[in-house]
């Protein structure tokens, strides 16, 4: 990293000075001084570098200077590479890292098994939510899909989708008579963790309990596969549809599956991207995206420990919208910013095992 | 460092070289600090002023190499894009992401701006149709098109994203299932789609040329029949209005059941080096900043991508319903194939081909390959869609000192393509060069063909490698052309510059007929013939 900074400085300066031999000689001294000066400021040599591969939802958190400072106070410099949670569990070469930090419990469970990790840490979580707009809430309330208390009734929703209902077929719909199916926008089930979490929710409801057998998989696949396939093209990164929700609005994305943290983070930023009329619904039941750290080396354990116990890191995680192990931090943040979220999310179910989830995702991917 | 400097000089020379444009998609040099090498769609040219300001603010300079959507997708999929570029920037990543080999090479995307594909019609036409007082859906638009109450131009869906988006939009809206398209859904609405495409009277390989040809016809500068409207990006239609070059400004019709929107994701390639990643981060952070977003919208007429930035008054309809897009490459291919082979007005394509003695050797062989490439021999992504289409009427009219007899084909089965291939293989080189007498003969062929079957997209490709040596001269032809009946006078001629072509005369033939010159002097004839397919 520093090497490239060094080179580009050198190139820029040589260009400016015209490049006589003398200038170059003088310059080398200057460049060295600049580089040393910089490294003194930003990275003290006593910090121990710990490398992790993380679900991309947490990249902003780890990149935040306040978070870096908090780790530095414990002698750590945490360097992270973002990757999809499912990739972390399958294709990422984990030997290079001290810890893996996927965004879901099933992915972590799989890594823990294959790497024989003694324990895991779940310092924060975020429930899966549906971000939508007031006119949509009203339309869905008429259908019994939305109930008071920001509840999105998944069973009722599946009844609507089973019939292939379009928005313009809903009675008394003048607000959003779009000629497209009533469907929650998700990411591509072939790529993304949030889509896998959505499958966990919908398969639970379609099956009447956690899917845990091949028979149950076969039973639910037609109904839940449709929820993805009928969307047609879906984006591969979780940021994509949520950004569309914020910028293109109701016409493009009337309902988007998101992590609660994505929405809260935007409110906390106060960048006016969350506008009046934008609202959160909580699927009943929902699942928690449990950000679970799997230590791969002892120094990874230290990061897991700090994230779980350090009060400052806890507070900072809450400002990024995560629900923290100690609920006070999250409560303070949502109170301060006036975000309308339930203090506790009650109707939460467990996702199926990693293997079951993977098999169902594979089966859906084949139908594209 | 010295090596780097030299490469920089070489790259500049390449960009400013006087031997014509570099071939599409050609690399822009090795990776250098502070430079982001981007393989891009040609509509990004209008970002030049914004990118200059970005370079000042961030120290990151963008070097573009332009290519078509399908060729670009192919070079990402087969890995060649990774060899010479750090990022790709097309109007949409949807098609790329449907190709597994391309999708896995894409890194982070950053959406920079957006523009929906909508219909622009003169205000008086919109009033006449009664669409000024209410918003209409695609079904009503298709119905009016089927009754020929208006005509329009759109780009070739296989070479240009605006045409592709229009095709997906209307097919998706008309199926009415509201979910993504599949083959059965397309078949079920084929009659309505045929209605809609029966009113398409202008096609083009690029959005830019489509818009210019439309303007020329509207002002009566081109001999072709006036075209009422344009299906194009909102940004293109807004720019046409802003330039104040039409007799009557366009009213934008936003179908109330939905549109397909281009969202211009600047996308890092997975292979990009550390320097390029840093450059990408700095550049995208700048482009997404509120000030840059406002500037982009002002300069390009596209909508800002950052939710912090509000739309200005030019964007009359704000909340657009986005239609679903097919979820598999097979569905997309099926739709485009159906468009060419069943849905759109079939083409009548006349090739007037120089087989004089000067074509002997490599040249005649290149010409044979160019025609054979269009019979299915070109198996690249773009080649598959540029072959002669089902129902197309293809005529080869070889000439030397005089026109030979025309070889006429109508494509119904693969066997017909085989016959065209055999005819191309039989082309030989000898004798003189009677360009204009032969071209004249071509109009007689077209006259006879259209007497039997009038409703076709008709055009002429004129390929010659040198000066006219016998028969009519240019002035004779110009007088002849002037005296043609309007239907034939408006048939666009697409001259192909090759060898020692008389570039000036060819340019005049193109402009008197409302056509366009294609240059094959610095690339193969096959590449030029393939590009022309978008205009036929």
From TrEMBL, chain B:
InterPro entries: VWF_A (IPR002035), vWFA_dom_sf (IPR036465)
Annotated Gene3D superfamilies: von Willebrand factor, type A domain (3.40.50.410)
Domain (VWFA): residue spans on this chain: 348-536
CDD domains hit by this protein: vWFA
Pfam families: SBP_bac_11, VWA_2
Protein name per Swiss-Prot or TrEMBL: VWA domain-containing protein
Biological source species: Umezawaea endophytica
Lineage, opening ranks: Bacteria, Bacillati, Actinomycetota, Actinomycetes, Pseudonocardiales
């Amino acid at each position: 990293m520093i090497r490239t900074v060094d080179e580009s400085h050198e190139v820029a300066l040589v260009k400016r000075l015209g490049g006589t031999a003398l200038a170059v000689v003088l310059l080398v001294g200057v460049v060295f001084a600049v580089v040393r000066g910089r490294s003194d400021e930003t990275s003290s040599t006593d910090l121990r570098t710990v490398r992790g591969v993380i679900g991309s939802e947490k990249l902003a958190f780890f990149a935040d200077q306040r978070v870096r400072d908090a780790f530095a106070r414990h002698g750590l410099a945490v360097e992270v590479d973002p990757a999809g949670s499912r990739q972390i569990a399958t294709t990422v070469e984990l030997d290079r890292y001290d810890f893996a930090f996927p965004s879901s419990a099933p992915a972590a469970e799989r890594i823990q098994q294959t790497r024989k990790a003694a324990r895991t840490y779940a310092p924060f979580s975020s429930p899966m939510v549906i971000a939508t707009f007031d006119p949509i809430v009203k339309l869905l309330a008429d259908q019994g899909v939305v109930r008071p208390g920001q509840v999105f009734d998944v069973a009722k929703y599946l009844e609507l989708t089973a019939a292939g209902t379009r928005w313009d077929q809903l009675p008394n719909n003048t607000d959003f008579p779009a000629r497209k199916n009533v469907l929650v926008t998700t990411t591509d089930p072939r790529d993304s963790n949030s889509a896998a979490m959505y499958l966990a929710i919908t398969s639970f409801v379609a099956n009447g309990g956690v899917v845990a057998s091949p028979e149950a998989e076969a039973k639910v696949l037609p109904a839940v596969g449709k929820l993805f396939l009928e969307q047609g093209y879906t984006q591969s990164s979780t940021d994509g549809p949520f950004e569309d929700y914020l910028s293109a609005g109701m016409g493009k994305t009337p309902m988007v599956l998101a992590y609660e943290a994505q929405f809260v983070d935007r409110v906390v930023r106060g960048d006016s991207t969350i506008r009046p009329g934008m609202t959160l619904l909580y699927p009943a039941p929902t699942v928690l995206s449990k950000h679970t750290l799997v230590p791969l080396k002892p120094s990874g354990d230290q990061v897991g420990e700090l994230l779980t116990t350090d009060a400052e890191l806890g507070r900072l995680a809450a400002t990024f919208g995560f629900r923290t192990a100690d609920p006070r931090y999250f409560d303070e943040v949502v109170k301060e910013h006036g975000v309308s979220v339930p203090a506790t999310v009650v109707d939460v179910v467990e996702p199926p095992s990693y293997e079951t989830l993977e098999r169902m995702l594979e089966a859906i991917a084949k139908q594209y | 460092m010295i090596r780097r400097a030299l490469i920089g000089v070489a790259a500049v020379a390449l960009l400013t070289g006087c031997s014509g444009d570099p071939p599409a998609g050609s690399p822009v040099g090795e990776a250098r600090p502070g430079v982001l090498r981007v393989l891009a769609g040609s509509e990004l040219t209008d970002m030049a002023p914004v990118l200059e300001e970005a370079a000042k603010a961030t120290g990151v300079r963008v070097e573009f190499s332009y290519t078509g959507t399908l060729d670009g997708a192919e070079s990402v999929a087969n890995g060649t894009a990774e060899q010479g570029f750090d990022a790709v920037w097309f109007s949409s990543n949807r098609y790329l992401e449907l190709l597994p080999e391309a999708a896995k090479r894409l890194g982070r995307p950053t959406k920079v701006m957006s523009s929906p594909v909508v219909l622009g019609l003169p205000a008086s036409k919109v009033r006449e149709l009664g669409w000024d007082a209410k918003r209409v859906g695609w079904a009503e638009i298709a119905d009016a098109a089927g009754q020929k109450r208006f005509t329009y131009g759109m780009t070739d869906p296989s070479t240009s994203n605006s045409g592709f988006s229009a095709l997906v939009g209307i097919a998706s809206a008309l199926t009415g299932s509201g979910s993504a398209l599949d083959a059965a859904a397309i078949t079920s609405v084929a009659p309505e789609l045929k209605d809609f495409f029966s009113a398409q009277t202008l096609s083009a390989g690029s959005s830019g040329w489509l818009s210019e040809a439309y303007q020329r016809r509207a002002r009566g500068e081109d001999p072709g029949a006036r075209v009422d409207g344009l299906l194009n990006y909102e940004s293109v239609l807004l720019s046409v209005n802003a330039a104040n070059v039409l007799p009557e400004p366009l009213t934008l019709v936003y179908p109330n059941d939905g549109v397909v929107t281009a969202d211009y994701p600047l996308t890092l390639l997975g292979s990009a080096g550390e320097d390029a990643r840093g450059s990408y981060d700095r550049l995208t952070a700048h482009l997404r900043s509120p000030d840059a977003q406002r500037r982009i919208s002002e300069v390009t007429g596209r909508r800002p991508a950052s939710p912090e930035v509000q739309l200005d008054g030019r964007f009359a309809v704000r909340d657009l319903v986005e239609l679903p897009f097919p979820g598999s490459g097979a569905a997309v291919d099926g739709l485009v194939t159906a468009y060419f082979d069943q849905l759109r007005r079939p083409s009548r394509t006349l090739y007037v081909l120089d087989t004089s003695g000067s074509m002997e050797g490599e040249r005649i062989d290149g010409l044979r390959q160019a025609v054979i490439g269009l019979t299915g021999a070109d198996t690249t992504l773009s080649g598959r869609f540029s072959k002669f289409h089902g129902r197309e009427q293809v005529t080869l009219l070889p000439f030397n000192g005089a026109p030979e007899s025309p070889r006429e084909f109508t494509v119904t089965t693969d066997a017909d393509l085989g016959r065209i291939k055999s005819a191309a293989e039989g082309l030989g080189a000898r004798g003189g060069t009677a360009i204009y007498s032969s071209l004249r003969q071509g109009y007689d062929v077209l006259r006879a063909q259209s007497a039997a079957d009038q409703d076709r997209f008709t055009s002429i490709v004129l390929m010659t490698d040198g000066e006219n040596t016998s028969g009519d001269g240019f002035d004779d032809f110009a007088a002849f052309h002037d005296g043609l009946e309007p239907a034939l006078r408006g048939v666009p001629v697409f001259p192909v510059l090759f060898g020692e072509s008389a570039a000036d005369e060819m340019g005049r033939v193109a402009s008197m007929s409302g056509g366009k010159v294609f240059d094959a002097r610095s690339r193969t004839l096959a590449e030029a013939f393939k590009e022309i397919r978008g205009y036929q």
